[in-house]
Recover the amino acids of this structure.
């Protein structure tokens, strides 16, 4: 397996676990994933969409050099 593929799988696994935790503790991600699931999306699709949303948020935080702020309930 090429080195780049190994790094991608590591990041993908980490994002998956973060998404699982975020669905329990982050009301914004939970509402997003619940809405997709209610619209008939399959569980795997919902998780990948949640992972992408988290990654987009993290990239924006890095770009803007802003610290993490817990979402308001």
């Amino acid at each position: 397996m090429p080195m780049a593929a190994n790094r991608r799988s590591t990041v993908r696994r980490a994002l998956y676990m973060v998404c699982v935790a975020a669905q329990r503790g982050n009301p914004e991600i939970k509402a997003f994933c619940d809405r997709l699931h209610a619209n008939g999306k399959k569980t795997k699709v919902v998780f990948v969409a949640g992972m992408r949303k988290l990654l987009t948020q993290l990239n924006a935080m890095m770009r803007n050099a802003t610290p993490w702020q817990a979402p308001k309930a």
Residues 19 and 54 are 7 Å apart (CA to CA). The chain is about 80% helix and 0% strand. Helices lie at 3-25, 27-38, 43-64.
